[in-house]
Amino acid sequence: MCGIIAYTGKQTAMPVLLDGLKRLEYRGYDSTGISIISRKRIKTVKAAGKLNVLESKIDTPITGHCGIGHTRWATHGAPTDENAHPHVDSAKRFAVVHNGIIENVDALKAILGDDITYTSETDSEVIAHLLAQHEGDFIDAVRDVLAQIIGTYGLAVIDQQNPDQIVVARNGSPVILGIGDGEMLAASDMSALSRYTNQVIHLDDGELALIEPESFKVVRMDATLAHKEAITLSNQAANYDRGGHPHYLYKEIVDQPETAQQTINGRLDERFSTARLGGLNLSARDLIGIKRITILGCGSALYAGMAGASMIESLARIPVVAEPAAEFRYRNPVIEQDSLYIVVSQSGETFDSLAALREVQRKGGFVLGIVNSVGSTIAREVDGGIYMHAGPEVSVASTKAYTSMLTAFALLALLLGRSRDVSPQLGTSIINELKALPENISKVLTLETDIAKVADRYKNSHSAFFIGRTNGLPIALEGAQKLKEISYIHAEAYPASELKHGPLALVTEETPCIVILPDDDLLPKTISSMEEIKARSGPVIAVTSSDSKRIDKLAEAVLRVPASGPLTQPILMGVVLQLLAYHSAVSLGRDVDQPRNLAKSVTVE
Ligand code: AGP
Questions:
Q1: Phi, psi (deg, nearest 5) at residue 74
Q2: Cis bond upstream, residue 319 (ω within 30)
Q3: What is the pTM of this model?
Q4: pLDDT number for residue 603
Q5: What tens digit of pLDDT does each residue of 289-301 get?
Q6: Is 600 tagged catalytic?
Q7: Ligand 1 centre distance from Cα of residue 300 (Å)
Q8: 601 C-alpha to center of ligand 1: Å?
Q9: What is the per-residue pLDDT for 179?
Q10: 368-388 per-position pLDDT tens digit
Q11: For ligand 1, what atom is nearest to the CA of residue 401?
């Protein structure tokens, strides 16, 4: 999705802005642009396409110490040079970059009148023209204009008449201030700030900030001052480095023994054979009072939620459902006092997940977050939660955060289980299972050569099926999602039991079927599904923790993960499917880290 970077300070702004844009690339974009106040004038360069196209348009470096930059992911208007941000008013006094959507753009254009010549098809351009019609103080002018806007925004504005100042504002789209030494930055995403500072302030909705090289102030829309505390982020810059790997996605897959360990660290309570999750803000009495759980998320976070639902329900015997956050909030959900709601999100900024969270809270429900991004909006608005501690995830396709979501759910299932009927002995065995998880992920990573061979063999398939049952189904869903996202091979996931109710019609010798076979009670039944596929000449790739010889007989390839307990074997199988998708995408020459049409963090509805 769109990204913003803004800089004012002692350095020349252009390299900082270009570096910021580079770091925002992973969010997905189709055009870029920068505006810098240079020799008392605003200079703007914009280009459709990737950042290198913008760079090639800059013949001579632009001087100046204050500027803004943007990566645009087209919504209103095609990805063209004209539609790229920043947008300026007719006199080129103001330049604006904007993330979000202005819903009343037609009404605002009517206010502006017929004399304005618009140079783009975007809704955002209207902000620059409205600003040009205001007199007076810079920040007040921005506030007055924003008061007229219906919609969402994260934005940054520069003003030729205030050459060291930038005004940024937030309503529904993230803006973070970065406090440097003799310099101030702002961005929509930590990744663009991490090289320059680890002191950051997250703006809340309805707040604006005026930033200058040595100072900043934050005000609300009613002009009152907001007191904001900076937070210190540790070791951020290193996490945005590819560390010598060919892709961020690969790095994030192979980092998983470590990142899963980070999710577990300090959270196993061996004395009481349970999990220690201090951030939940729930007492032991609250825990036993929970009658139902609803898990909400989008995409891979939803599939992680489905896996979590299965873990919690089987261990704690609490009814749990996982639902797409967007669908949940629009069906006027019934919110119950004795229900627990859990929102799962890597970025903590996904619009639909945030909207669902707010809908539940508005109706008096208690919401936990399972979130990766520290200080993100969802993390700040939930009533309690579990940070994944997986570190920043750069590649658009989620891998390490997804695995950490499952790991966090395993911890929560243990805690809820032990607050009910799970015995100390079973609690201890789950603790041992979780302790072994990082090592077992490392063992799965050693299967890479075999997985790459399978990927190469089936890379030209037009379609693939992923099937599993109960615990295996959410893993199949995520496996299909990963393959679609990065290799563009059409993939569908089904409960294995549903195969003969329809999809079997599509199985031929050309349709690889990836079968997820945890070593559990349903294993013989899933093996029967393999037989059904085999009988239609469908090639079967088995991902299993079982040593059943029947599996070897029926499958073209068997990818065997280490034997482990019921909570973690799906996690291990998920890692196999990540590598399968990765190698399929690489062998097809895809843009692994920035797949077409996708954005890292979906901050619009
Ligand atoms: C993951 O591979 C996807 N790109 C996507 O489905 C993602 O999981 C979804 O958009 C939710 O994002 P979040 O975890 O940041 O909320």
A1: -55, 130
A2: no
A3: 0.84
A4: 74
A5: 999 999 999 999 9
A6: yes
A7: 5
A8: 7
A9: 96
A10: 999 999 888 999 999 999 999
A11: 14
